[in-house]
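Shape matters. Shown next:

___
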Amino acid sequence: MLKLSKVFGIVSSVAAFALFVPNFLQARPSIKQFNSQQEAIFEFLADDMEYSQSQVIGKGHATVINLDYFVTANEATYDTQSGEITLSGNVNAYKGNALYLKAQKIKIKMQQDYSFLEPFYLQDSMSGLWVDAKSAQYDKNVYQTEDTTISTCSVNNPIWQLKASKSQYDVNEEWLSVWNPRLCIYDMPVLYFPYLSFSLGYKRKSGLLYPEIGNSKDDGFLYSQPIFIAPQEEWDMTFAPQIRTKRGAGFYNEFRIIDDRDEMLWANFGYFGDTDSYQRTYDLENQAHFGFQLKYERKDLLTKSQNYFYEDGIYADISQISDIDYFRLTDRDTRERADLQGSLLTSRLNYFLKSKNDYLGIYGRYYSDLEKTSNAETLQTLPQVQYHRQMDSLFLDNLYYGFDYQAKNWTRPKGYRAVQQEAHLPILYTQSFLNDFVNLSASPIFYATQINYSNTKQKKLEDGRYYSQYYQFKVNSDLVKQYEDFGHTISLESSYILPGFDREKGDFQDFFTLPGHRQELRFGGSQYFYDSSDTLFLSHRFKQPFYLEDNHKMGEFENEIQYFYDYQWSFLSSIFYSHQKAKISEATHQVRYDGEYLNASFGHFFRQSFADIDWNRGRFGEANYLMAGFEKEFESIDIFASAGYDYKERYFKTWQVGFETSIRCFSFGLKYVSEIYPMLTTHGTEAKDDKYVLFTIKFIPLLSSDVKVGN
C-alpha cells in the first residue's frame, strides 16, 4: 500500500518507471535524497526547475519517485525547510505498471506521514473497486474522505454505486468503513444503511457475512445473519442465527481449524426449535431439531519415521442429527458433507498404526435410519479392533504366511447384542509360469470365530462357535500391449474356494458371514484402452461369483463400462444382473457432455427390491429415477435446468430452471425450484412438496444476498 512517510509517489523499480517515462528522463533536472546507506529513497524530476528561497518548483511532467511508487503531475513544489511537497494538475499515482490513485492536488508532509488530496480517486487493481471523493486526508496509513462514491463498475456510468457522506480506509488493515451509505442502482437510491464496513483485501477478518432473506407459506419470513469470527490465522468460525416467523428460531455454528500439518478439522453444530402450533399443525415427531457434524483426516498423528510403528492416521466423519429436517433447515454445504445414502446416515471414526510387518486398527461405525422415529434397534459397530500381520516369508521361497484378528462389538439399546471374535491364518504359495504371463497361488486358510450374545430376553440365542479350514486357489494374468494407434492392458483373475473341514455350534444371525463352508468360484477382470498420447478412452470391469453348493448357484454379475470421447463426451454403464430372478437388479447409465460453454447430462438409475444389500456401498432400498440437466453459457447470460423423475411412482422428485447474468461489477439470477423432501412425523416419514423462487443479486465484490420465496 501507499507509504507517504517516505514520499507519496514511488515505483517498484526504475525499470517499471521507464514504461511510463521517456528514455531521456535522466537528462532532466532532478533532486535526490539518500538514506544512511547511500540509497536513493526520494527523487524529484521535472522538465524545468526553479529555486526560490526555500522552495524548488518543478514544471512540466513533474515526477516524484520512491522505492515502490511514483507520481506524475503538471507541476510540483518542494519546500526544503518544511519537508512538504505539493503536486497539482492531473496527479496520477502508479503502483508497478497500474494506475493506483488520481487527484487534482496532493499535499504531502514528508516527515509527518500526512497528506491532503483534492479531489481524490483511488482504485484497487485486483478487485477493480474505486473510491471517488471530493477530498481526502491521509494520516498515518488511514484515508479519510468526504462525499464519497464507491463502485466496481465503469467510472462514467456505474450500474451500482455506494454514496456516503464520509468514509475511512485503513491501508494496513485493508478495511473500508463508510457512514450513511446509500446503495444506488444508477442514480436511484434503493437501500440505506447508517454504517457499513468491509474488507477490501484477501486476509480473513471478523465481521458480518451476506444475509439470507426469504419467505415461505409454511415457515413465514426467513432471516439468517451469518457472523464470521477469525481471531487467529489457525482457526475461524461462522455463527448463523436465524428466525422463521411462522415456525421458530435457531442457530448454526460452523468451526474450522488448521493443524500443524495443514489438515483442516471442520465441525458444525446447530439447534432449531419449532413453535407449539407448528408442531401440532404438521404432527412432527420432534419439536427441537439439532445436530452435530465433524470431519477430520490426518496421517502421522503420533508416530515418527524412526519408530517401530512409522505411520499412523485418524479419520473422523461423524454426523449425529435428531431427524432429516435438520439438514433442510441448514445450508446445502452441511448436507453434502454428511455420508447420507438414501435415508441411512453413517458416522465413522477410525485410527490405525502401521509398521513394516504389523497393522493395528480401531474403528467405530454408527448408523442412523432417518425414516425411523427411533434407532434403538439399529445394530452399531462400536468398536471394532483389528490386528493384521503382513504377508511374510516362511521357510521356503515363494511360501508366505499372514494373520488377521478382529473383534467387533455389535451393540444397541434395545434388542440382542453380540461380541464377535474372528481370526484368519492363511499360508500362501505362489509361482509364475509361461515367462511370468500367468501367476498361480494356493493357500490353505484356517478360520475361527466366536459369538457371545447378551440382552437376549426377547430373543433366545445360543452363543455361536465356528471353525473351518479351507483352500483358496487363484490364477491371474496381467498383460500390456502397445499397438500402432492405441495401448491395451488387461487383467484377468479367477479364484476357487474348496472347503476342508468345518464345525458349527450355536446361533448365527444373518449379518454374520462364515467363510469356507461352501465351494465358491469367482471370475473377474478389467481392461483399459489408451490413445497414442496415453489418455484413457475406454475401461471395462466385470465380476461373476458361483456358489457351487447352493440352490441358487450364481451370484450377481457385475459389469461396468466407461467410454471417454474427444475430452468432452463420456458414457457410463454399470449393471448388476441377478441370475436367480433372471432380471437386472441394479443399473446406472449416464451420458455427459462437458464443453467449454455447455455442460449437459442424462442418466438413468434403478434398483430392484431384491437387489443384494451392501451397506458399505449404500446399496439398499428400491429406486427408479431418470435424471437430466444442462448449463449453457452465453456472452452475457447463463441458463440452466435439471430434473429428477421417479418413473415408477410417476412424479418429479426434484426439478429446477433458471438463469444468471453478470458483468464485472454486478450479477443477478433467478431460479424456480420444486422438490419433494421427507419430514419425520409421529407416524413415520412423510413426503412434503416444496416449491420456491430464489433470487440472487451480487454487487461485486461488496454485497451479495439470496432471496427465497416459497409457496
